[in-house]
User: Fold this.
Amino acid sequence: MELFDNHKKLFSTAALFFISLTILVAITPALNNQKNNQPLPGVEPLSEQAIKGKAVYIANGCVGCHTQQVRNVDMDKIWGGRPGMAADYALNKRTDIWRNTATLMGTERTGPDLTNIGSRQPSSDWNLVHLYNPRIVVKESIMPAYPWMFTIKKDPAKGDVIVNVPEEYLEGKEGKVVADKEALYLVAYLQSLKQAKLPDGSTAAEFLYKSVEKEQAGATPKKAVDGALLYATHCQSCHQANGEGLPGAFPSLKGSPIVLDDNAELMVNIIMNGYDARQNYGVMPAVGTNAGLTAEEIAAIMNHEKTSWGNSARQISPEEVQKLIEFVKLNATTK
Amino acid sequence: MNTRANKTWRILFTLAFMQLFFILSVNAQGTSKGAGHAGLFIFLILFLVVVLGIAISTLAKTKEMISENRKTKASFKDKDFGNYLRDLDSREIEIILKRKRNPSKDNDAGGSDGLKFKSAFLSIVSLLTTTGLFAQNNKGQPDSLLSEEGVIITIILVMTPIAIGVLLMFLKVRGLFRQFRNKRNLAEADKLADYISSLDNEEAVTALEKRKAALDYQLSHTELAGAFSAADEKGMISNAGPASGLTFVAIKKKAVKRPNIDPQLAKLILWYIGTAAFWLLFGTTIGEYLGIKFVSPDADHLSWLSFGRLRPVHTNAVFWGWASLGMLGLGHYIVPTVSNTALASLKKGWYALCLINASVVMGTICLMAGINNGGGEYREYIWPVMLLFAIGVVLTLINFLQTIAKRKTKEIYISNWYMVAAVMFAIVIMLTAYIPVWQNGLGETIVQGYYMHQGVGMWFMLFTLGIVYYFLPQQLNKPIYSYSLGILAFWTQILFYTVIGTHHFVFSAIPWWLQTVAIVGSIGMIIPVVAGTTNFLLTFKGAWHKVAGSYTLPFFLIGIVFYFTGSMQGTAEAFRSTNLIWHFTDFTVAHSHLTMYGIISFFLWAAIYAVVPRLTGKEPPQVTVGAHFWLALIGLLFYTIPLMYGSTMRGWMWVKGMPFIDTVTHMAPYWLWRAIGGSLMWLSHIFFAYNVYRMLASRGITDVKEAALKKLEQGLIKN
Assistant:
């Protein structure tokens, strides 16, 4: 065939074929996608510190293990309240002339998704300790430690941010661990990662592939909610598996008067609205509200806390919790 | 086997395949159907096909038995016995002769079991029909029920004894069949004995005696040589040595000496291959260290060696350093060779070599210093660094095209199609991905999906296929099985591969239709992959024995096997239902190693071992080539299989809503296996580097024969 024996014709045909397909499936959709895209109303751009933090995030290749996308599948529900959409990434533009846009969606989830980490774990104390060495707060973690973002000082200056690192992690050095700018920027970036709320009146896309049990509630008995598993997901990274917390950072739940109290109002209030009343401990985020936990799930977590690690308080029913939730919600709005 | 059974077979297979495709398409559409059940469903259907297959073959066997029985009854005639008599050996003739010399009485016995068989057959048929009905019922189960674990388990539990029953029945019928045959043969033997004794005595005895004498004849062993001793007057025998004891290492065929290659070109190619080997060792040392970090995260606390920075160093070094340089080196050998002309410009070759190496060195340093492009996989080098690489590739394209333009053959051999296309496409891909003025926003992610997959499929895979199309036929010393299949694979690869990039972002904020196109394209990849695999395997036809005697062909064979399995795995991963479980887990890591290592690296090693001895005249030691091959293969399996298993479980745990940290601890043993497999792979690269060194450098041991000859020569000059 003439086409096959003439190198000019053969290779230009192949090249044209490939280039037209490229235009069709890559260039046109890419242009369309980035042009027809606006951020959701009310979304604020990153602060100056957070922008610097994002640069630290990029430089250290965090995207290799952490995704930033909530897929529209049921299993991703724990990472955000609704599936991600193009608008969520609308504020991402080219970093500079040398470097591409960093949407940081990622393709590996060796570590947790960080789309909503700013709501899930807003505590800067926790984040700094965790950055210094993740195994201080999460024993099983395999995340790298970033001690080079901290300095160990004998006499910290007045404005220094001191990180409460247990002695065995200091590798024999003496002094206080002070967070460098890099670490502070990075934490500022992590704190800024929050999934934006949809404007009133619009409904989010549905999560697909819901587990079958939920659809046929009549056919199979409903699975009991496992408080221990929920505790591991939502509470353990601060309060630890043994419930003892971390001295100087996260309070112990073991023998805690709030946990053991028969009147559970304060406990429900802390879970739903967060807590920042104690100077010597970090801020507690509004875990229950952020994760969208149901009264049943909160009751399960509370009962796990009330009956583990030597605690033995009266268990609470989901109905009681439901009542208290409504009560504390009212309180929070009137405040 | 009779035709009716054949027909049933065909219908059954068609049905099974239609159903398979139906399932695949359902999966591709990705509705709210339960995720893991599709696999189970496929498994069930395959299982049914196997059971039915056994049943049908049993049926066929029974029918065959009955018809044979009928036939033997019809034609139990004397003329058949002639065959038996013609095949007698000396010992048997002796027995007959003895019998003939002193005849005595004999008796006759015989019978038929027709009735028994009929009843047995009937019972089997009735059993079979019930199995068939059962099978129909299963296929007809509504989806909602089938997705209930309890129902699935029940079905499997019910099917297990049925399968065992069918298998037992099959064995039983086979035994029956054998028994029946024996009985029939015994009857026939009786008749044969009768026949022999009825033969005319004297005539038979002389004929048999004559035959026996002929059979007993033996040679004197001096017929050909006569009284002379043997001599090789034409010099046809070489390397003949006395047979020694058992060899620990198999002796493989030496590389065949080829017409001399321009030493300047040889030098260029060897530099490409040498630097490629360096980057392989460097890149996988980093990879090995990363694997260790999964097991021991506190191995170091240095920013330049932290996991997030080293990971792209590893991937980019093996991509742009090892695989790209290795491919280009081999390309510089193949393009002029199949064009039957010299390379257009050696200078361009050297420039490209330097630019690409410089790009990888600078890229590595940048990444370790924390300067990267913002997270796109294999796009971590910033564009000024990648520009060097791109210029190198452009120079190569010009060089290859100019060489092909002045070819002395009419046609363009298919290797050159693949390789030149790969170089052209690589330039298009890099321009699309890196031109800094057009992407600004979410479009980046669409381009990222396109870029990373085209980099793999259009640059590495296409180029490597070109290498295989040249070296595989050359090593087998026979033409490629089908040129047309190669052409089909070429165009379909371009059509389907180009569209599949977005399957890395299934369920993400990328347009849904684009994801679906990518999934459909992934299914389409079956065509080029099956065409290519078939073509390569059929080229082996009639030459399989050469595999054992060659040290390059095993590498090709493993590459072909992984080409099929690895690529098909990619198709399987692209469905929405499987993506749900496997995406974001280490399954993709296992997959990329099965393909980039199992396919690309094995093919490159095969071609390097084929070409370097031709260029230098030195061969690698057999032991270390063997060690390289086996360590790489076993290491790869240790690396990928546990990782795939563990990741599937991890994905399932995510679906079930287990706490995230539990899925991290769950992976620990599989990460350990990964580190072990990775260590074996890394060790194999040390052997490879040593082999390259042995093929390049002089051995440094004085050859006694050569030295003696040199001395004699000098002595002659003096005299």
User: Anything to note?
Assistant: The beta strands of chain A are 94-96, 99-101, 150-153, 162-163, 176-179. The first helix of chain A runs from residue 2 to 5. The first strand of chain A starts at residue 94 and ends at 96. The CA atoms of residues 74 and 209 of chain A lie 6 Å apart.
